[in-house]
Design brief:
about 375 residues; about 20% strand; 12 strands; alpha/beta; six-stranded mixed sheet; three-stranded mixed sheet
């Protein structure tokens, strides 16, 4: 299962957010730096309203959503790349995840200490990115030095690696993250082996106070973050209120809805964050639907039908014959598989078919 790491400065709401998305109180959330030392890990279900529509069509009571893993990583401070704070330990934890959710504090509260003494989300983003860039620059420089002799001898692997590293080095030298480097698909495969911290897909979570959530689109801190990450990092920013979600953990579904309604919002933003992170990881969903259950299955964007079948069981991929397929929108519009078949929208797809997000599928195989 792919992992998304929750990162940020100390006291920005990382552990509170982790508790919110995992619906637990697993991570300590305290008003002092480094209250998280070893990362907390939790499996998070991906909210998907489509499952409950399919549940009614399939006439079943069992719904199994997709899931993704979140990791709560200790707060980073200035100088981490040279060992400040938790330094190298923190950076190692980041290296082990597949994508990053960078939490940015977008609220004033005199009772919650900020390591820099005041609120400035763009400065906070730059502090973290600088440390990650410095760590990556050291990695790239070492790898360039290490592979120089092999490249000089004409070793093809070394030459290919050197070519990609030489694309990263000047960008990192300018203080820009690795994810801004333009690479071919082949170069991206090579770059994955470098495990660069700034080359990971990243989404920014603007953490606001519960009283500011309904008007978050006018929040000056949120506006600054959105503009900065779009302009400088080509990334997306979402708004969340980690404290609201933390308060919702112990409420029933009905109580939670009533609480959010009082605040003038439908959700705290954590549902949107989970869905955005799922897509950020390059993950997509297809469904199986029958009387036994409706289930969301996780695949990578671009996966073919046999690969998707293999997610259920390796035998399905090995003995794949065909996939009976109907698009979610078509099935919902017509109300049943029989009606979709009648309209010619229930198709037989072969081994080359690239599965689309929302496909409802039934696999035929023979082993």
């Amino acid at each position: 299962m792919l992992k998304a790491g929750i990162v940020g400065l100390p006291n920005v709401g990382k552990s509170t957010l982790f508790n919110a998305v995992t619906r637990t109180r697993k991570a300590e959330a305290a008003n002092y730096p480094f209250c998280t030392i070893d990362p907390n890990v939790g499996i998070v279900t991906v909210p998907d309203a489509r499952l409950y529509v399919l549940k009614d069509i399939a006439k079943t009571q069992v719904v199994i959503p997709a899931a993704v893993e979140f990791v709560d990583i200790a707060g980073l401070v200035k100088g981490a790349a040279s060992g400040e704070g938790l330094g190298n330990k923190f950076l190692t934890h980041i290296r082990e995840v597949d994508a990053l959710v960078q939490v940015v504090r977008c609220f004033e509260d005199a009772d919650i200490h900020h390591v820099a003494g005041n609120i400035d989300p763009v400065r906070d983003i730059e502090t973290i990115n600088t440390e990650l860039v410095l760590a990556d620059l050291e990695t790239v420089t070492k790898r360039l030095d290490k592979g120089a002799k092999d490249a000089k001898r004409g070793d093809k692997v070394a030459l290919a690696e050197q070519g990609v590293l030489q694309k990263f080095q000047p960008v990192l030298n300018e203080g820009k993250p690795g994810l801004t480097v333009q690479l071919t698909p082949e170069e991206k495969v090579i770059a994955r082996g470098f495990y660069l911290l700034t080359d990971k897909p990243t989404i920014f979570a603007c953490n606001v106070k519960e009283s500011d959530l309904a008007t978050a689109d006018a929040n000056p801190y949120v506006l600054k973050v959105r503009d900065y990450v779009k302009t400088h990092l080509a990334c997306e920013a979402v708004v969340i209120s980690a404290q609201i979600e933390s308060d919702l953990i112990d409420l029933t579904e009905e109580e939670a809805k009533a609480f959010l309604k009082e605040l003038g919002v439908e959700e705290s933003g954590v549902g949107s964050l989970i869905r955005a992170t799922y897509h950020l990881l390059g993950l997509r969903t297809y469904f199986t639907a029958g009387e036994k259950e409706v289930r969301a299955w996780t695949i990578h964007a671009g996966d073919t039908a046999p690969k998707a079948a293999g997610v259920i069981h390796s035998d399905f991929e090995r003995g794949f014959i065909k996939a009976e397929t109907v698009g979610y929108d078509d099935l919902v519009k017509l109300g049943s598989v029989a009606a979709a078949r009648e309209k010619g929208l229930y198709r037989m797809e072969g081994k080359e078919y690239v599965v689309k997000d929302g496909d409802v599928m039934l696999f035929k195989f023979n082993v």
